[in-house]
Specification:
Order of helices and strands: HHEHEHEHEH
Number of helices: 6
Number of strands: 4
Strand content: 15-25%
Mean pLDDT: 77
Structural class: alpha/beta
Shape: globular
Strand order of the largest sheet: 2-1-3-4
Length: about 140
């Protein structure tokens, strides 16, 4: 079945500059798609992976392929096995000490992608430590 002329016009830019916006949207969509293909979910306490996956899905606006692990040692091992595109790290307790150490190690071994830290209770020093470690 041939596409109608009206359908064709729906795809065309309506104002000057719209084609740039359309290209940016396509580029953004490609970038988001690549992030959702391999996400590592790091939990410091077991049992919250589904919440974090849902949160990442909401942030990116699409389904996400996730690999949940427990703790920084498992995160480093998983990174060595198959480098993720994005990491979502769930910190437990205050200060985020384990996350800071784990994220620093991931950055040192070459992970350059985005790392999102989710923290229940974070003071200014903990936030500064996470930023220094390389949280996006």
């Amino acid at each position: 079945m041939a596409q109608s002329r009206d359908d064709d016009e729906e795809q065309r830019p309506r104002r000057p500059g719209d084609h740039v916006v359309m290209k940016l949207d396509a580029s953004r969509s490609q970038a988001l798609r690549s992030l959702t293909q391999n996400a590592l979910i790091v939990e410091e306490v077991a049992g919250r992976g589904t919440v974090l996956t849902s949160m990442l899905r909401a942030l990116l606006g699409r389904d996400v392929e996730t690999r949940p692990v427990l703790g920084s040692v498992a995160a480093l091992a998983e990174f060595a096995a198959d480098a993720p595109r994005i990491i979502l790290w769930r910190c437990s307790g205050t200060g985020a000490a384990e996350a800071t150490t784990g994220i620093t190690s991931l950055r040192q071994i070459g992970f350059a992608g985005p790392i999102i830290a989710v923290v229940e209770d974070l003071d200014a020093r903990g936030a500064a430590n996470l930023r220094e470690a390389g949280v996006t």
